[in-house]
Specification:
This protein is mainly beta. The chain is 0% helix and 47% strand. The chain has no helices and eleven strands. Strands 2, 4, 5, 6, 9, 10 and 11 form a seven-stranded mixed β-sheet that branches. The chain has a four-stranded antiparallel β-sheet with strand order 1-3-8-7, with no helix packed on it. A hairpin with a 6-residue loop joins strand 5 and strand 6.
């Protein structure tokens, strides 16, 4: 059973940076597309970024495009989300999710993932 663990969240000032990590234990991530999602209080969960199993396909939501970068290191069994120029509206719980049903593809839609981590809080505030 794939288990995902997010880390790297915290409190940061507007304009600052954080790097989130999504790691797996016992199962290799190299066959899985990985998505990053976030959910702010009172809002629905939204897709932020995703990367295909090979890393050849990456996608970003309009709200983070140009500020966030997704990458993967299959040797470390970890996927990263580098977040720069953070804004207060980026405040949310961030989740990573995995799916291996569509090689060479990734999606920003919740329903396309069947494994989820517990989430890590990101707070952007002065």
């Amino acid at each position: 059973q794939l288990q995902l663990v997010e880390s790297g969240g915290g409190l940061v000032q507007p304009g600052g940076s954080l790097r989130l990590s999504c790691a797996a234990s016992r199962v290799t991530l190299e066959y899985y597309a990985i998505g990053w999602f976030r959910q702010a209080p009172g809002k629905e969960r939204e897709g932020v970024s995703c990367i295909s199993n090979s890393g050849g396909i990456t996608k970003y939501s309009d709200s983070v495009n140009g500020r966030f970068t997704i990458s993967r290191d299959n040797a470390k069994n970890t996927v990263y989300l580098q977040m720069n120029s953070l804004k207060p509206e980026d405040t949310a719980v961030y989740y990573c999710a995995a799916d291996r049903r569509r090689p060479g593809y990734c999606s920003l839609q919740n329903g396309n993932y069947n494994y989820w981590g517990q989430g890590t809080q990101v707070t952007v505030s002065s």
